[in-house]
Amino acid sequence: MAESDTGSDIVTAALLVIGEEILSGRTQDANIVHIAKALDQAGIALREVRVVPDIEDEIVEAVNAMRRRFRYVFTTGGIGPTHDDVTTDAIGRAFDVPVAEDPRAMRVFEERYPGEPVSPGRRRMARIPEGAELVANPISGAPGYMLENVIVMAGIPRIMQVMMEDVLPRLEKGRPVSTRTIRVDAPEGHVAGGLATLQAQHPKVQIGSYPFFEETGVGTYVVLRSADGPLIEAAVSELFALLIREDMPHNDEDEETS
Amino acid sequence: MAESDTGSDIVTAALLVIGEEILSGRTQDANIVHIAKALDQAGIALREVRVVPDIEDEIVEAVNAMRRRFRYVFTTGGIGPTHDDVTTDAIGRAFDVPVAEDPRAMRVFEERYPGEPVSPGRRRMARIPEGAELVANPISGAPGYMLENVIVMAGIPRIMQVMMEDVLPRLEKGRPVSTRTIRVDAPEGHVAGGLATLQAQHPKVQIGSYPFFEETGVGTYVVLRSADGPLIEAAVSELFALLIREDMPHNDEDEETS
Q1: Which residue does chain A place closest to B212, by CA atoms?
Q2: I need a surface site. Which of A174, B23, B29, B191 has the fewest CB within 10 A?
Q3: Which pLDDT value is given to residue A194?
């Protein structure tokens, strides 16, 4: 599998999950799979995920490594009102731009809570690095933002999800990748040789192999992915021929164009 | 929160999840939370997680970056029998050691399937980088291994879990970190100022703040962590005093020593 396997015009992305609670095992992350699916459907290829603690230096280092390498970098977590929310200061440092109370963000809170002075916690959440565009948060107000190619979102899953919805239309998209999944009722080892040959013959189709274990036996999901649908069909036909020749029971699990 | 906050004698670790299926959103990762908890209980601090695709160059780069920085690096995925299982070759390249069929691993298969010649798929899974110690896999045979400070495990959760059990006793441990979780029935913004002061006064206790949203209202979990139990107790007492003074309803959610 090479970087270019699923087709040309690839728009790449990386995700930086910021949160001690994931690293300590306190929380089961729910954001990675959501963002991975949303990007896949949008034709953006998620190429790397990192999880780091709420430590400013580590966030700065990760953001700078990732933003140079990928078209987009998404971050989740660390933009709340408390002392351990250090993402925004880290982003300011990573880009070497000042961070200050943003009039647009302040207006969000003023309109949401009319007649109230904006509380210190909300003022902290209105601090935005200079040059960023806001990302709307219709659920609780406090916005995310996009600075150059870095999109900074909340860690709370349902807030992160509405932020993704707000920001996705602004992003450059690649060709969406189509996926075919074939279920083979034989262990991975039995299909390994055939799949290796198939992959070599179809360099533009990414062929993945995932074992499964059920009460009735073991088997293999073969997942074929490409931005070029006809190439997948050609590879699937050859896979079926191979499975029939080797007498391996199989069926077409699903057909999805994501 | 600084690197040394939860106490001295910290043994650090990183996790490298290898798998296109996580990045495409096909699979919800289940390994990160399991490994994070197991390490936390063992007194090993998980400091970073990365997810990369099944691309040899990317695995080599990540392993080399992580193994120099952390006491241990765990990897999951990519050690099966198919063409997209490239972890072992990547580990060999990262350490610049040869990879060959390992007599110990071959013996595992020979004893498991007596009288049968070892199949090509199993022979592929018996390829181990030179100098590695095996990690047992009582479920399906094919072993993981530990090379210097890098522990290579399967991606299938129940196999990864038995491999963790096998390898953990061999590892250096730090002082286990104790955790106290206090539930406060007030939004994060209301406790933010007090928590910042508390954190400044208790640099050896890591104080995290996690909002929650329930039908009955919003609130905050305050999580205090330290390898030094009495330090946590002192910080918790001050937190309670603060919450009572500010009239914020709260209760001691749990007391766990992990």
Answers
A1: A156
A2: A174
A3: 93
Q: Is A183 on the interface with B (CB under 8 A)?
A: no
Residues of B in contact with A122 (CB under 8 A): 189
Is residue A211 located within the same domain as residue A125? no
Q: Which of A84, A158, A183, A258 to mutate to test the interface with B (most CBs of B within 10 A)?
A: A84
Rounded average pLDDT over B166-170: 97
SS (H, E, C) chain B: CCCCCCCCCCEEEEEEEECHHHHCCCCCCCHHHHHHHHHHHHCEEEEEEEEECCCHHHHHHHHHHHHCCCCEEEEECCCCCCCCCCHHHHHHHHHCCCEEECHHHHHHHHHHCCCCCCCHHHHHHCEEECCCEEECCCCCCCCEEEECCEEEECCCHHHHHHHHHHHHHHCCCCCCCEEEEEEECCCHHHHHHHHHHHHHHCCCCEEEEEEEEECCEEEEEEEEEECCHHHHHHHHHHHHHHHHHCCCCEEEEEEEEC
Task: Report yes or no on B2 lying in a domain.
Answer: no
End-to-end alpha-carbon separation of chain A, Å? 20
Chain Cα centroid distance, residue B207: 20
Domain span at residue B222? Answer: 178-257
Per the domain annotation, does B6 fall within a domain? no
**Residue A221: strand pairing partners:** A183, A210
Cβ <8 Å between A36 and B49? no
Mean pLDDT over A216-226 rounds to 91
Same domain, B105 and B202: no
Average pLDDT over residues A8-12: 81
Q: Is residue A4 part of a domain?
A: no
Q: Which of B3, B20, B139, B191 to mutate to test the interface with A (most CBs of A within 10 A)?
A: B20
Which residues touch B128 (CB under 8 Å, ≥6 apart)? B88, B99, B100, B102, B104, B105, B134, B143, B145
DSSP A198: H
- Signed CA dihedral, A54, A56, A58, A59: sign only: positive
pLDDT of residue B3: 43
Sign of CA dihedral B14, B16, B22, B24: positive
